[in-house]
């Protein structure tokens, strides 16, 4: 079975938001006072989550990425990783399980996550300056994030990817320093163009730092060589000074890669989304709790994809930002 949309894109990657809660308040994500949390009774239980994952695997999913909010805030995150990693694919083997985290709390459970079967870790880090970090996230937790990255290195996660959002008048002068810091630690840095997914709706195309500007900043210090074979990966990767170090840039706004998208997203309250920017969702929680069969749940996956558009439409004149912010959708 394959999960194919009307444009021939086969979907193998399921991004699951474990929670909409977060312990940071990044200015580009949510306002200082936070956002209303999802009602507890709407959140998927571990058993419900496993049921949906098993159905997804049967339909063609081979990779599961856990996101949030901040996924490490789920007290059962290690159990969830272990249960997903133990599932079998119809073609043999097990799904690849990865996680995207802000790194706070990672130092305490990095080893447990590795033992549970987690294969890859992405950590969000926009600045190495403690004062800037505090201003940007409204929390004084930089040392915790750095400790989390170091713990992930010590237990053997590789490659560890570091996600950074370049922002004018915030960290734009620090981009090359971030790259050097990552290269020294064998981390793969990925710059992500800021997208219109913030709860406060303050995103502006005029202030967004583009892929071209990131390349210009990095090229003042390093020689970048584009790497072929991107496939469905969201990041265009560049060899740094002939290697072995690599840097990636996710240019979702200025160089959309929708034509190769292979991702579906499941929100913490059980809504399936065909795109980060989708205006509609397909309810899995309701049918699941009403006793739907695996076949019926699998059909919802296909119905969701049947309505997937060819692109996210950010650059279209009539573009509308989705009702949910990134923290409630999952990255």
Please provide a written account of the structure.
- With 331 residues, the chain is an alpha/beta fold.
- The chain has a single domain, classed as Aldolase class I (TIM Barrel, Alpha-Beta Barrel), CATH 3.20.20.70.
- Helix content is 29%, strand content 16%.
- The protein has 10 helices and 12 strands.
- It has helices at 46-59, 77-85, 106-116, 130-137, 142-154, 175-184, 211-219, 285-289, 294-306, 326-329; strands at residues 13-17, 63-67, 96-101, 120-124, 160-164, 188-192, 224-226, 236-240, 246-250, 263-266, 271-273, 282-283.
- The longest helix has 14 residues, at 46-59.
- It is globular and about 55 Å long.
Mean pLDDT: 93
**Major pleated sheet:** 12 strands, mixed
Helix content: 25-40%
Read across the widest sheet, the strand sequence of neighbours is: 7-8-9-6-5-4-3-2-1-10-11-12
Series of secondary-structure elements, N-terminal to C-terminal: EHEHEHEHHEHEHEEEEEEHHH
The best one-word shape is: globular
Low-confidence stretches: none
Give the radius of gyration: 19 Å
* CATH T-level fold name: TIM Barrel
The CATH architecture comes to Alpha-Beta Barrel
The CATH class designation is: Alpha Beta
Superfamily at the CATH H level? Answer: Aldolase class I
- Give the total of beta strands: 12
